[in-house]
Write a sequence for this structure.
């Protein structure tokens, strides 16, 4: 039986608002987990005896499982019901967080981080699809996507702040324990306020072989990028090519290739890779700059990022939806990305003062990101048939993870190479030069995103009425 596309009619406004709050809180928790542990890594290494190489697996184990299972999780949401998949993933993520917090050995922590990723994927993959189905009205949907986009855009910065505060005030275990109350409350509330939905059923077909191919491809790709393992990257490309061939021939494909014939969907996902590569890589580099060049401690680094989520909240929750309704999501996206580019170019001249050199670009970038990300999320779900909303939601989440892995790896390599070449100048000066180069590379990713978005994403008419059959955000 197909999904009930009029599910919003069964939600009074207040119930829809509560359901949105629960979905976004759970999504924020999962996003936080990818960055909250970053500030705590030195303490984890000292306590559990990780080697320098082994410590990277505290992050990589989570990213490999999370990124690899997003697309499959989104499709399972379409088949089994998105609420059911969301609840299952959220429960597993919360339980794995408890085990991670209790870890007394390196092996247990890495395994629990992998399981966190396994649970986080279904808890995240179906959320955007649930939101666009709950809000068929274009104006209300734009506002709801703005709320969701805030959790995605600001989550990493909030994670750095929370990680620094928890590690310094308590200990690293609390970077995982903090998920427990959030996860339990979200589970209990979701059971009450998120209405059950009907998937098309497994009898509609699940491409198991295709699922194995794409899951292995993304896992190997994320691992290869994170670890600079060229063999894994080559294997990932081969498996991804095999997956594309499989999807073209399968009777019930995991990722229907017809989605890529929707211009907004195809363009938005490629732009997402480039945008996230620049913006998430920038956060990684800036965290290192603040600690290694400006000498801030863990808590100070988190506080230094505080203006970013504040400005993103003002933009994405305050006026991004109205701008998209008035001018169209494409115009808002390109303008927002332009502001981010200006901020990154200013950072290429950073000379050592937080308030004079770092804070103004951070504010400018937060404003641009807060406007651009909701617009891009809306475009990514534009004109997607309701029965494919889950896999489309999983796809945009997958491209985010790929972009984050690519950006972090490329920027880290660029900064390290530049620093090494200038080492005779002195350690601090060489580090600063490496970070300035990384900011230039970040700007390059964003410039490519603007160019591609301007070419591929067509001008879209402003939305005037809901279309129940499609998750529209205005037709091309």
């Amino acid at each position: 039986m197909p999904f009930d596309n009029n599910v919003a009619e069964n939600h009074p406004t207040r119930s829809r608002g509560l359901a949105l709050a629960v979905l976004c809180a759970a999504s924020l928790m999962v996003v936080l987990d990818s960055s909250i542990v970053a500030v705590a890594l030195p303490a984890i290494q000292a306590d559990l005896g990780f080697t320098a190489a082994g410590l990277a697996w505290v992050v990589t184990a989570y990213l490999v499982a999370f990124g690899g299972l997003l697309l499959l999780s989104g499709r399972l949401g379409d088949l089994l019901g998105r609420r059911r998949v969301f609840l299952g993933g959220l429960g597993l993520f919360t339980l794995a967080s408890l085990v991670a917090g209790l870890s007394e050995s390196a092996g247990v922590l890495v395994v629990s981080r992998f399981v966190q990723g396994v649970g986080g994927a279904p808890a995240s993959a179906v959320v955007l699809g649930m939101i666009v189905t709950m809000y068929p009205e274009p104006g209300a949907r734009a506002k709801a996507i703005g709320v969701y986009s805030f959790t995605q855009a600001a989550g990493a910065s909030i994670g750095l702040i929370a990680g620094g505060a928890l590690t310094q005030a308590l200990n690293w275990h609390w970077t995982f324990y903090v998920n427990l109350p959030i996860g339990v409350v979200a589970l209990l509330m979701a059971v009450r306020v998120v209405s059950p939905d009907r998937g098309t059923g497994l009898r509609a077909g699940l491409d198991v072989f295709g699922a194995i191919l794409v899951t292995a491809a993304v896992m190997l790709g994320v691992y290869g990028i994170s670890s600079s393992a060229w063999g894994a990257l080559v294997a990932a490309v081969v498996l991804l090519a095999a997956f594309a061939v499989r999807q073209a021939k399968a009777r019930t494909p995991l990722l229907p290739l017809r989605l890529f014939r929707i211009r907004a969907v195809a363009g938005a996902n490629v732009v997402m890779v480039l945008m996230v590569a620049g913006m998430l890589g920038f956060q990684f580099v800036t965290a290192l700059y603040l600690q290694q060049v400006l000498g801030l401690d863990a808590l100070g680094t988190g506080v230094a990022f505080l203006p970013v989520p504040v400005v993103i909240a003002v933009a994405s929750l305050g006026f991004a939806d109205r701008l998209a309704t008035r001018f169209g999501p494409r115009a808002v996206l390109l303008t927002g990305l332009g502001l981010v580019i200006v901020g990154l170019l200013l950072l290429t001249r950073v000379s050592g003062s937080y308030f004079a050199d770092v804070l103004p670009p951070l504010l400018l970038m937060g404003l641009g990101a807060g406007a651009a990300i909701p617009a891009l999320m809306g475009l990514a779900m534009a004109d997607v048939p309701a029965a494919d909303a889950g896999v489309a939601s999983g796809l945009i989440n997958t491209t985010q993870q790929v972009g984050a892995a690519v950006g972090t790896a490329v920027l880290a390599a660029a900064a390290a190479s530049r620093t090494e070449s200038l080492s005779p100048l002195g350690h601090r000066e060489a580090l600063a030069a490496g970070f300035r180069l990384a900011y230039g590379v970040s700007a390059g990713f964003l410039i490519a995103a603007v160019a591609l978005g301007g070419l591929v994403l067509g001008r879209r008419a402003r939305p005037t009425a809901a279309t129940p059959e499609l998750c529209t955000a205005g037709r091309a």
